[in-house]
Write a structure and sequence with these properties.
Two copies of one chain form a homodimer. In chain A, about 35% of the residues lie in helices and about 25% in strands. The first copy, chain A, has 14 helices and 17 strands. In chain A, helix 4 runs parallel beside helix 5, helix 5 (about 105-120) packs parallel to helix 10 and helix 13 (about 365-375) packs antiparallel against helix 14. With about 425 residues, the first copy, chain A, is of the alpha/beta class. The longest helix of chain A is centred in the last third of the chain and has 21 residues, at about 300-320. In chain A, strands 7, 8, 9, 10, 11, 12, 13, 14, 15, 16 and 17 form an eleven-stranded mixed β-sheet that branches. Chain A has three domains: about 5-135 and about 300-335, NAD(P)-binding Rossmann-like Domain (Rossmann fold, 3-Layer(aba) Sandwich), CATH 3.40.50.720; about 145-295, Dihydrodipicolinate Reductase, domain 2; about 350-430, ACT domain (Alpha-Beta Plaits, 2-Layer Sandwich). Chain A has helices at about 15-25, 25-35, 65, 80-95, 105-120, 135-145, 160-165, 175-180, 190-195, 195-210, 230-240, 300-320, 365-375, 405-415; strands spanning about 5-10, 35-45, 60, 75, 95-100, 125, 150-155, 220, 240-250, 255-265, 280-285, 290-295, 350-360, 380, 390-400, 400-405, 420-430. Chains A, B: Its EC number is 1.1.1.3.
């Protein structure tokens, strides 16, 4: 049986998990891969005192891996942008195949990296970058190969989903965030997670792999969950909805919707039931309809599982020298379309609006007529006399689907109304139809 | 761009869906596959007046496809056992690759077919045979390649799941079955679906692909849903459970559990929320933990989607002539283990028991002591005075996990008790721990 040699760069959470699973399940993995996958070198800035690397040579210089002529596959698990990019490009120049879990790298520098890999005739694989252990890139690029994928919607950040899940018990965002930090679910600086940047990285990759368009991270829209209140969560529930932090990508004839924001989803839909740190990605194809992929979006061995699935695929490709590999973004470069990402004003959505209004006669009529003038139909409206406070009362409205442009203009007018407190809360809603 | 030529045998539901999607999305599929996939011949016993085959030659003799020297991939969609087996073996002898949606064929004759294909150096692919449009074979064989898969549990028959979903409203099995037949969800002879044979075919394949053991359909256990009552469904709900018709495969050191039966699952688990005709497969791996794959388990284009995903994979393999393909059952033949399927007496489960007892003093004590003598611990017990009828009252018990052997002996003694009506209802329960 042929040996394929793997060098791991980075021994943090995912690096450790990958090393441990590859070692523990070596025989089983060889049985699936048809070749022995051997870790022949490991490098990391910091040594891991808690890990037993056996007789695998360890180095603190990651370039010892990249420059080792015996390494077939370089596994990039150092994270970040610049150092990772240099490392991956150097590996490609050296004729190495690359497996990475780095979503930021692929979302931001993927077009350049794939082009370099294509020229060098090597493979760059990134399953572990999206939704951790869930093999969703494989599902989108290969499992759904027959389909025109129309949209993808995912809970692709476990930290955010944990926070929103806990907030359903009436707890405030800041309190749950602190708890998530204490539990190790959230970083000391939680920006990447709670502001949706991490999710936007993953969504960018999913959209490109699904639709066959270049990676366009910088054009996506991102809104975090830090302004979500237990009040809005409770009222969304009364309307039959649940608030999830979704990444949504939709393919339209005139462009791509690419957006991460808090979203009302019907409680009856399976994705509303995905709680805690877990991830789920819903993919809609013209032939298959809706499919969903669910599981752990993070964790040492869970993410390691996806890293190793890529290593096995690449190891098979190493042995075949085939030109007919699965294309990086699902489609051959010459079959890709140069569709632009649409501006948020052009997207379509339903909306939850919370308007704090003075309790005066005629206020509801004014609100309704502003919405009507902008062509916005109301699906539900809620106002409870018992919530009157300081002469003000919240009016909650769920609209039908309209263009974001229409809602923006209506909100401007609602906020300018002397009968409101000048601030309208707006959360987008999806029915997955 | 290279052309790969496909011949379709069978133009029923799935054949029609496959033809239509391959034709409609031809350009998109070529962009993903890196080659043009062209349907060059179609054969079916009966012509489809409702379909436009364009200029593709049609024949009523399926061997016109198998014997056409220009066909690279034979797509077997005629269904059934013997004729399909002959067709597939003939195609393999002619050096054709084969894609099939036929779970019965693979579950019963797969070992023989794979051996013939291995010798002939061709590929046989069967994604569409399990859970329709959900790419779960790909997930298990490739996406989870790093994992020792410990168990697989799935809702893999849409008809049965539709019936159990509708029965939650208090309706009887026979009434809902008739409705399902009228809606076209159930066959005139519903045995394959409601007695779990169809699910057992799929489970056999999933278990082999996940665990790396030969296909052993004939040794599996199958129990249908025709004896489930709205009463037991309602009482399972009171206990916090939902009754689903699950296929469960568990890998143990001493063998494989392989069983299809009605099962109580916790309402809080995502799989309990999978309703109607939809399918979902839960896979537990030692590295990744639990992942779930959800979507349509049947339908013309949904199943066609899986057929075409296989065609794309095979088309890439055709061009590479690689020896290092994904192994049929996930593992290279020499890496497979000869683990036997365990007898049902050896499986472990929790149990829901409904005992109809005479309303006499001391009955509960007798029941409890029989369970206790067999080492069976009780998790919950329910008995409502209001349900007393003709001097009899139902006693509902949920046990902890024990061996099926223990429950069988206890049920024998409970049924022999003069204080009961001689019939104990038993439904297995899973907590997915």
């Amino acid at each position: 049986m042929k040996d394929v040699s793997v060098g791991i760069c980075g021994l943090g959470t995912v690096g450790g998990g990958t090393f441990n699973v590859l070692t523990r399940n070596a025989r089983l993995i060889a049985g699936r891969a048809g070749c022995n996958i051997r870790i022949t070198r490991v490098a990391s800035r910091r040594a891991r005192e808690d890990m037993d690397l056996g007789d695998v040579p360890f180095s603190t210089d990651i370039y010892d891996v990249v420059n080792d002529p015996d390494v077939d596959i370089v596994v990039e698990l150092i994270g970040g942008y610049d150092a990772a990019k240099e490392l991956v490009l150097a590996a490609i120049r050296n004729g190495k195949h690359v497996v990475t879990a780095n979503k930021a790298l692929i979302a931001v520098h993927g077009n350049e990296i794939f082009e370099a890999a294509e020229k060098a005739g090597v493979v760059v694989a990134y399953e572990a970058g999206v939704a951790g252990g869930i093999p969703v890139i494989k599902a989108v690029r290969e499992g759904m190969a027959a389909n025109r994928i129309d949209w993808i919607a995912g809970i692709i950040n476990g930290t955010g989903n944990y926070i929103l899940t806990e907030m359903r018990a009436g707890r405030e965002f800041s309190e749950v965030l602190k708890e998530a930090q204490d539990l190790g679910y959230a970083e000391a600086d939680p920006t990447f997670d709670v502001e949706g940047i991490d999710a936007a990285h993953k969504l960018t990759i999913l959209a490109s792999a699904g639709f066959g368009v270049p990676l366009q991270f910088e054009k996506g829209f991102t809104e975090g969950i830090s302004k979500i209140t237990p009040y809005d969560i409770a009222h969304a529930e009364l309307l039959g909805y649940r608030i999830k932090h979704l990444g949504i990508a939709r393919r339209r004839d005139d462009g791509i919707e690419l957006r991460v924001h808090p979203t009302l989803v019907p409680q009856s839909h399976l994705i509303a039931q995905v709680d805690g740190v877990l991830n789920a990605v819903l993919v809609d194809g013209d032939a298959v309809g809706q499919t969903m992929y669910y599981g752990p979006g993070a964790g040492d061995e869970a993410t390691g599982s996806a890293v190793i699935a890529d290593i096995v695929d690449v190891a098979r490709a190493v042995a075949t020298e085939s030109k007919l590999r699965v294309p990086y973004l699902g489609f051959s470069p010459d079959a890709m379309e140069d569709l632009d990402v649409l501006s948020m004003e052009d997207i379509q959505s339903a909306y939850y609006l919370r308007i704090t209004a003075l309790d005066r006669p005629g206020v509801l009529a004014k609100i309704a007529s502003i919405l009507s003038e902008h062509g916005i139909n109301i699906e539900s409206i809620m106002q409870k006399e018992s919530e009157l406070k300081d002469g003000r009362i919240p009016v909650i409205i769920l609209t039908h689907t309209v263009q974001e442009r229409q809602i923006n203009r209506a909100i401007e007018e609602l906020e300018a109304l002397s009968d409101t407190d000048g601030h309208v809360v707006r959360i987008r809603a999806e029915n997955f139809n």
